[in-house]
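mind reviewing both lines:
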Amino acid sequence: MKRGVVGIAVACAAVACTVAVYVVSRRVRDRKNWNRTLAILHEFQDGCATPVYRLRQVVDAMTVEMHAGLASEGGSKLKMLLTFADNLPTGDEEGLFYALDLGGTNFRVLRVQLGGREGRVLRQEFEEVTIPPHLMVGENHDLFDYIAAELASFVAREGEGFYPKPGRQRELGFTFSFPVKQMSIDSGSLIKWTKGFAISDGVGKDVVDALNKAIKRQGLDMRVAALVNDTVGTLAGARYWNEDVMAAVILGTGSNACYVERSNAITKYFAPKSGCMIINMEWGNFWSSHLPRTQYDDDLDADSLNPGEQGFEKTISGMYLGEIARRVILQMAKEVSLFGETVPPNLFVPFVLRTPDMSAMHQDESLDLQEVGNVLKDVIGVANVPLKIRKVIVEICHIVAERGARLAAAGIVGILKKIGRDGSMAGVRAKSNATKRRKTVVAIDGGLYEYYPKFRQYLHEAVAELLGEEFAPNVVIELLKDGSGIGAALLAASHSKYLHS
C-alpha cells in the first residue's frame, strides 16, 4: 500500500515537474518572441524615420529634379509635363460650360453656369455614369461613342438656369486621368491605359480627337476646349476662388502634384516666354536616395505591376499604405507567432488590408482598442487578439502613416522652394519682404487626405516644421473636394475660342 502511495506521489511530482518545465519554457519562449516582436517593430521604425534633416534632403532633391525635368525631356525622374494651361481662371468667366471627368470605371458629366466676378458659380449639375466592363477592353470608338451618348443625353436635359449663348458651340473641359503626351491645351495622345482599361487601338491616338468625333456622331454641337488631368483640374478649381493658389496635390489611391510655373523657367518649352503655365509633375515617380526605404518597400516594389517605377507614390499613397502594414504584420506572424502557431491565411493575401482599415485601427482611441480587434477579426480572420498585440498593430499603422505624410509634406515644400514660396533665400529668391509675407495656398484633394485625420495632421505638422515658425503661417493647405470636374469646366471657359469675342 505504501509503495502504491509513494508511486502515485512520484508520478504526480514528475507530472508537476513536467508542467513546470513546460510553463517555464513557454514563458521563456513567449518572452523571446515578444522581445523579437519589439525588435522587428523598432527596426521598421528606424527604417522609416523622417527627422527634419532628412526631410530637408528630400526637399532639395525634389527641387533639383524639378529643374532637371523642366530643362529637357527624360532629364529627370519627374516628367514635368507641359499642360499648355497658360490662361488660368480669374473669376471673370461667364457662360455655360461642361466638363467630362474620366478616370476609372465611372465617369462624371457636369455643367456649370458662370456669372462673372459678381455671380461666380450661379448653378451646377452633375451625373455619374458607370462604364460597362466590356467597353474597357473593346474598341476605342465604342468607348468614346458610349461616353458621347451619355454626354448628349445629359445635355438634352439642360434645364432652367442654364443659358447657352446663341450662335456658339458648347465647350467642354475633359479631365482624362491616364498618361497622355499633351501637344496643346486641346490635344493629347494616349501613352498607355491603366486602371483596368486595355483598349489597344487607343494607344498613341489623340483622345480629344476621339471624343470630338464621337460627339459629332451624336449630332451634338460641342467641342473639347481643354484637356486636363485631375490634379490640374483641382488647381484650376481652387485658383478660381483664390489667386494665391499655386499648387495642387492629389492624395488618394494614387498621388500626383502640379503647380504654376513661370513660362520663362521652362527651358524645354520653345513658345514665347511670357506668363505662366501649370506643370503636371507626375511626382509619383520621384525617387531619391534620401527617401527612407525598408525591406518591406523593396519587396512590395518587386511584387508590383510596375517594379522600379512610382517609388514616391508607393510610400505616400492610399493604394500602398495598408499593404506595407500588412507585410510588416505578416513578418511578425511568421517569425514570432504573433497570432499563434499558425499564420492566418488572409495575411498572405496582397492588399487584403486596405488603407481605410489601417486608418480605422490607427485612430482607435478606446481603452481596449475594440476597433483594432474588429478589423483583425473581419479582415485578417483572427479573434480575441491580446491588447498588447493590438497596441503593436496600432504602432505599425502610425509608423507607415507618419512616414507617408511627412514625405508628402517634403514634396509640397520642394514645390514651394522651386517657386520661391518657402521663405528660404535658396533657389528662386523672394524679391522683397512683401513677397515673403504673401500667402501661398496649396489645394489638396483625395480620400487619403480627407478621411485619414492623423495622416492629415502629420502632413501639416511636417510642413510647419520645414517652413519654420516665421514663414509657416504664410502657407495654407486646404482641402478642395472633387475640384477636378469643375476645374476642367473653368479651364474650358478660360481657354474658350470665344474669349475675346
